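Researcher: Structure prediction, please.
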Amino acid sequence: MPATFRRRQHLAESATGDRLALTGHFELGRQLVLNRGGAATIVAGAVLGLSCTGSDARIEWRGTVGMTARGTIVVTNAAGRAPGPEVTAAVMEAERRGGPWRGARRDCCRMKTSSGTVRWVSLVAVLAGCAEADERWSGSVETLPNGATRVTNPAQGVWREGSAWALVPELRLGEVEGSEATVFGSISGLAVNDAGRIYVLDRQANELRIFARDGRHVRSVGRAGGGPGEYQAANGLFWLSPDTLVVVDQQGGRYSFLSREGEYLRSVPRRLGFYGWAFNGAYHNGRVYERSTVRTNPNRPRAMVGNDPDQRPALFGTSLRASDSTAQAGVDTVLLAPPTGTPYESFSVRTERGGMVMGVPFAAAPVYHLDSAGNVWHGHGSDFRIVRSSFAGDTIMEIVLDAVPAPVTEAELAEWESGGSVAQFRQMGGRIDLDRIPKVKPFFNGLYLDPERYLWVSVPAGPMETVFAVFDPEGRYLGSLKLDGLRRDTFLQPVVSNGKLYLVGRDELDVQRVYVFRIEK
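Model: Predicted structure follows.
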């Protein structure tokens, strides 16, 4: 929408520590650049205040401004994030000279300092990938009957040669042989703090290993057991605050709070009747939510695995302020949108002594991701359609991409058939119907929203490839990022922090490691 500027009397004279009062609508901007003759007029450390008024709400925001090596001013808030999606345009309190906001990317503004000096500057707002992205993007945006937005993307993304992001290898943690701290048995959690310190949770050792940003081992804490700071099968990490890290021990039945230095603080009991290989959830509004399923009709007999119509995905939230006596009563159950495809494809066999269930390889499955703002991102790998819903279940945005799934190669199928699980299944008398195995891989198998609200979609590719499709905060497809010689462990979410991508994966030796890549934009 067009923006209007008003001239105000307040703008500090000093460049460092300037306070700019902004009012109006701020459209998902990640960068705000003020130029005067090609040079930035504010420097790293300047402070911004933003006041946004909508039709029925008023939003106050304060944050900091940093400068990149290219002179770009990057606006973030106190929590390290850019202004959220509820803030929709950017208007500086100065007299605007020029055409409509989108029609003139460089608008001349006259600002009056506290000493009365008038300065002329050129204002450039980069709206979630800059105005040039609008010119390159050939998709469409429509409003659905419920008011939600559907963004339909062509196969060609916004990125072109010379403008695409790049992932530059910076660090690798994990060795076949070496010091005890760098030989991982089974990584089950990964976290990074704002100083770049890396926290790696090893389920096999029941240890949390802390590394400096350069990879130097700082310390290891935790051990197997049931006492304070001990774990039975620690399998997840998340930040409660910038200074408090939570270790999830599902089988041990508790959440343990640690300082960023690794010191044990306290714990809260976990009384949920399920556990998985890795923690699947997030912290939101005072509760930690974990995903599982709930039966909507417990009186009806259970159906086959993956085909139970009464089984519904749900989030189970435990209050982290709860005491031992009230933890169970405080569980909050939130039903999620039912999957649009089969929840779980499987082969099964039953014998007198028991049975075995084995997943159909390369089969598409439902994917859910709860972000820190309480939005639920979900979709099914059988179709490249991703939905963003509110916590209450209302659809806010749909993202559609014209994509082609990767084929399943004969070599990949042969590798799966040679595995130990298949041999055990056949020894028990199980029959594998090869016609049920898809000829193509899922369109996607993981979702992650980074702190700047870019959506990273994990796309299955070759046997030793890791691929992410990246979407900007407005749902526009930017392009894909590919890492060769690396197979990511998809049960562990990647982490984007401090301008870097952190993930857990394996190389050709099948050694589990932590990889760090610098994101060059």
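Model: Confidence is low (pLDDT under 50) at residues 1-131, 324-328.
Researcher: Thanks, that helps.
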